[in-house]
Amino acid sequence: MDPIDLHRQAVVVDAHCDTILHVARGRRRLGVPSDEGHLDLPRLLKGGVDVQFFALYIEPEYKPDRGLKRVLEHLDTFYQELEDNHDALFLITDKGQLPRAGQQDRVGAVLAIEGGEAIGDSLAALRALYRLGVRSLGLTWNQRNLIADGVGESRSGGGLTNFGLKVVKECNRLGILIDVSHLSVRGFWDVLEASEQPVIASHSNARAMCDHPRNLDDDQIKALAAAGGVMGMNFAPAFLRADGKATLQDVIRHISYIAELVGPDHVGLGSDFDGIRNTPRGLEDVSRLPALTEALLEHGFSPAEVRKILGENFLRVMDQVWRS
Question: Does 7 fall in a domain?
Fold first, then answer.
């Protein structure tokens, strides 16, 4: 099958980018073509992306007690961009909207908080953010917060707090995707034990292929898959290979390893565009994603498997966790 045709026909989902942070800081506009960074709406459309998760990242200077204020500022930024670009962007908040993805020349946006500092110690704040459109929650960044320890605190052996267990249960009840990227190892296992729904690792790779603390080991990948979850491949060169000299083929190497370990139903894309300084050669920005489809086919993945990796796997989990 022609790679370009397959890419255009597939529903492409990218489970993580940090572009809203740059827009909020006034560095560029989402709808304006730019040579800076890795992602804007013109480049998303050129790259064939149908669903883009936009991370609402809480910067360290807003922690520990100004996270809610900052996430509200990010939400305001996003909604201004949504209003200004309604012809190219729409917000996805329930499973009933998922069939629209890929059926029109617009990008579906998913709002995803990166860092539980946004809710502090308040389930009410979590519920309010849900009402404002948030549908995915990264419980931590690298530090410790009131929910759990991040991967940067792994020395302590800490996982979910008592409040963190309540957050997991409330996310399950509301229909919010729980994201375990950046979470400590103990926290990962606590979440897998507590959650009644599949969870995602939106932008984490295979530790067996690159021994970085942000990557998941084989046991974690197996458990995530057994629970029906999906992990999105991060394009950060340091997560792809030890020397950081990554190419598109290193992304394929991680995808292939995970597919061989747990099958092709549990791996997707989580580029981390605009959250990483450098990119793999061949994936310089989001417009280059069709090259990934071509490389997957060349590596021996079937068209059906490529469609799963490009987006169907994440769509499956969204459909299972979200409300109608």
Answer: no
Residue 138 lies in a domain: yes
Residue in the structure block whose two tokens are 């069939």: 99
Among 235, 263, 264, 261, which residue's Cα sits nearest to residue 248?
A: 235
pTM above 0.85, yes or no: yes
- Asked whether residue 79 carries a pLDDT value surpassing 90, the answer given is yes
Domain holding 309, by residue range, is 12-321
Q: How far is CA 305 from CA 55, 136, 206, 255, 285, in A?
A: 27, 25, 19, 11, 23
Beta bridge partners of 90: 108
Q: What is the pLDDT of residues 46-61, one digit of tens each?
A: 999 999 999 999 999 9
The percent of residues above 70 in pLDDT, for the chain, comes to 100
3-state secondary structure of 286: helix
pLDDT digits (tens, 9 = 90+) for 169-183: 999 999 999 999 999
- The two structure tokens encoding residue 110: 């998913």
Query: What stretches of the chain adopt beta strand conformation (E)?
Result: 13-17, 51-57, 89-91, 107-114, 134-138, 177-179, 200-201, 230-233, 267-269
Residue 38 sits in a domain of what CATH number?
Answer: 3.20.20.140
Give yes or no for a contact between 189 and 159, defined as CB atoms under 8 angstroms apart. Answer: yes
Answer yes or no: are the C-beta atoms of 158 and 149 closer than 8 Å. yes
The phi and psi torsions of 148 (rounded to 5 degrees) equal -170, 175
Total structural domains in the chain? 1
Task: Answer whether residue 1 is part of any domain.
Answer: no
In a domain, residue 3? The reply is no
Q: Count CA within 13 A, CB hemisphere, residue 307.
A: 13
Encode pLDDT of 5-49 as tens digits. 999 999 999 999 999 999 999 999 999 999 999 999 999 999 999
